[in-house]
Amino acid sequence: MLVAVDNSENSRRALRYVGRMVKHLSGPVTLLHVVPSPNPDLFADQETMDREVKRREAEGRQLLSRARDILGEEGVDPGRVTEKLVVAAPPLTVAEAVLSEQSSGGYETVVLGRRGMTPKEEFLFGSVSSAVVRRAKGVTVWVVE
Amino acid sequence: MNQEEIKDRVERWTRRRPPGKIRVFEDTSAFMKITAGDVLSLGGGHYLVYGEETEGRFGLDEQPKFWVKRAIDLATGKKKVVKLAFYESFELSLGEQKVRCYRSPKKEARILEKTAGDGRFMQGISVADAAGNPVRILDRILGKSLYAVIHAYEISHREYFAKTFPSLFAACMDAVHAIADLHAMGEIHGDIRNDHLLFDRESRTWRWIDFDYAYEWTERPFGVDLYGLGNVLLFITGMGFHVLKDMAACLPDEAEGSICLEPSDFSLFFPHRIMNLKKLFPYVPETLNRVLMRFCAESGAFYETAGELLEDLEEAGKEMGQ
């Protein structure tokens, strides 16, 4: 099972749900955090951009560690849990990075939280969970609201 | 080029010899200090500054853009627009939605390179000044914006739609195609507006201008451009925008009897802007109106790519005999 996590409340809710569902089952659980690489056009120089990527990666590692704690609090054996951090650089989107990880790792189930965007936000920025549901093939997707 | 040679060139193109010493800037970092009468020395060329570009937005008076200089290429006498490096970040309002926007000279420089020779886009080169700032030297486009062209019409919508709209619609198709091609190159325009599409009187083509707005990469990187294209399409179809307030005062002559507007008839981003133009102008073809309705508040099926939009526009074009 691949659980994609971010810093949203719904993502934490998804983790608690996963914890309750899988604690009595066997099999590994991989926690995935995709760090969206910043758009290089937003930075005057490479050094400033590299600093921002490092900051996001450090934040992502903390987030994964917290996600592991949440699964532990729900009774999932920490030995079953692995953490993975992936940087998605344009043109790769977060949803594409999640599905690429699912495909290369042969995961049968992908779990995500749904942020609950407004239609305007969805028009302009798009929703990761909607994109994963739309593009996923041969895999079960759980979307937790 | 020394002072005397520069003065000779200035005199040649302006028919007036500058009396005093001309300030020549190789480093353009302090662009506020560069004013009319100064010369920019960039990439081996010399450019006489004669003013600044201005921009008005949403009813505001024209404001000078101090980093965008009007200039004359002293080698050829041709008018240029010289955009100096200026970095800023601000909240851009897209209707009721705010988006963090960044001005990126290097994005614009890259697009200039990728679209070199393509008549659907502004043309120019990018050079680094003595301090390494990316400076874009653009060909000045002589002609009106789409906004100005449509606002100049003093005819009824029915007459506009029958006589003028077909050619504007064809131009709009080309403009959408240009944006689809830009997206295929992995680029976004970033600031698609009615006044960023200019009719070049010399080449007789419509050209997109101003590509320096950049955003964080998202799940729908082309969403901002699709938003802009929806507005352009609505503007040319309606011969301007139509809002609820106007309807309350007076319906257009073309509307048949009374009309009942519903929440689903309005724009997703501008809650008072009417997207369902068929209710105002019944002769708007159904296929075209369906495209507009995809930008409505209750659409639920937004366009994901400019290519999808183009496909539906082609369908509408066929219905209109194009």
Any overview of this molecule?
The complex is a heterodimer of chains A (145) and B (322). In chain A, strands 3-2-1-4-5 form a five-stranded parallel β-sheet, sandwiched between helices. Chain A has helices at 9-22, 46-73, 94-105, 119-125, 128-135; strands spanning 2-4, 29-36, 81-88, 109-113, 140-144. With 145 residues, chain A is α/β, with parallel strands linked by helices. Chain A has a single domain, classed as Rossmann fold (3-Layer(aba) Sandwich), CATH 3.40.50. The model of chain A has no long low-confidence stretch (mean pLDDT 93). Chain B has helices at residues 3-14, 105-114, 146-151, 157-184, 223-238, 244-249, 286-293, 306-319; strands at residues 24-25, 39-42, 45-55, 63-73, 79-83, 89-94, 97-103, 124-128, 134-139, 197-200, 205-208, 213-214. In chain B, the strands form three sheets. Chain B has a seven-stranded mixed β-sheet. A three-stranded antiparallel β-sheet of chain B has the order 6-7-12. A two-stranded antiparallel ribbon of chain B has the order 10-11. In chain B, helix 4 packs antiparallel against helix 8 (306-319) and helix 7 runs antiparallel to helix 8. The mean pLDDT of chain B is 93. At the A-B interface, helix 4 of A face strand 7 and helix 5 of B.
Overall average pLDDT of chain A: 93
Please state the oligomeric state of the protein chains shown. Answer: heterodimer
Strand tally of chain A is 5
- What is the H level of CATH, i.e. the homologous superfamily of the largest domain in chain B? Transferase(Phosphotransferase) domain 1
Cα end-to-end separation of chain B: 54 Å
**Strand fraction of chain A:** 15-25%
Domain unit count of chain B = 2
Main beta sheet of chain B: strand number and arrangement?
A: 7 strands, mixed
Largest sheet of chain A: 5 strands, parallel
SS summary, helix count of chain A = 5
